[in-house]
Amino acid sequence: MNMAEENINSGYFLRLRLYQPQAHFRIPFTYQRRHTYPIPPYSTVIGFLSNLLGYEGLPVEYDNLKKIKISIGGRFKDKTTEYIWFRNVGKEAHIGRFSTLDNRSLGGHVEHIGGQSPVFIDVLNDVHLVIYLAHKNKHFLQEIRSSLENPIHRLEILHLGRAEDWIVVEELSPVIEVEQLSIKRVDANFRHFFWIPEKMYSFKSNHRQTDFDQFEGLSYKLPTFWNIEKYKETLNRHGRRIFDHIKVKLSDGLLTKKYFCFDEEFQLPVFLADFEEKT
To answer: Is residue 195 assigned to a domain?
Structure first.
């Protein structure tokens, strides 16, 4: 490495290439028709890592995880819309369907309690994700890598999105020094979606990435880490979550006249979100 390219943040990265036959990354506050992001938000990937590492919900478990930097990119073949029924087990919903609380028969058939609501769900097909995890602690990334090879600590089936959105690991890179990534201008249509975070991880002092405001894309505030309400009292890891957020732009992969972190081996941009930087 040229001495002029002085490191300001040394560390390591791990590249994951994942495949999903189908996936849904729900956009919050969409109900009757549940829309999906084209790639998972940071909270979904963080939840995936928590599941993989067997983290139940205690804040102390997240000390290393909260120092991680994440880049998310991906593509999919097409999108379909599923029509399903959601079950509502409230009293009012039951009475609305069966007229009385004691009745469970409709049209001569005994049904489940509660009511039903029709819901449309947008589903991505043939999803390919490229996720970069960077950290100063090499052993922590090696722990993630070994857990993906042999997920003995997982809390449940490994998935991204819905519980049924299982993953296939297509490639796991070695744990590599982050200085192996370059910062350069590459004008191309990379045919992947990327989250471009307002707070990006920097690791070379004289090669600055293009300022966030100069990137094109739709603006979002995405959830990242969370606290579980009353976890110490209930030990319920599925309790209400209170999220932190980060400002991002969604890029469709067409990048020109911009400088960014670049993976020379895989020929893709890398936009590492720094969650320790407060917006």
So the answer is: yes
Q: Which domain holds residue 19?
A: 14-274
Whichever domain contains 265, its CATH number is 3.30.70.2660
Measure CA 240 to chain center: 19
> Average pLDDT by consecutive 10-residue portion of the chain (279 residues)?
48 97 94 92 96 80 90 98 84 84 84 83 98 96 97 95 96 95 95 97 77 96 88 75 92 96 96 79
Using a 10 angstrom Cβ sphere, with 0-12 exposed, 13-18 middle and 19 or more buried, the burial of residue 95 is: middle
Alpha-carbon distance values, 121 to 50, 79, 115 (Å): 26, 10, 19
Contact indicator for 159, 21 with CB cutoff of 8 Å: no
Distance CA 16, CA 13 (A): 10
Predicted structure pTM score: 0.88
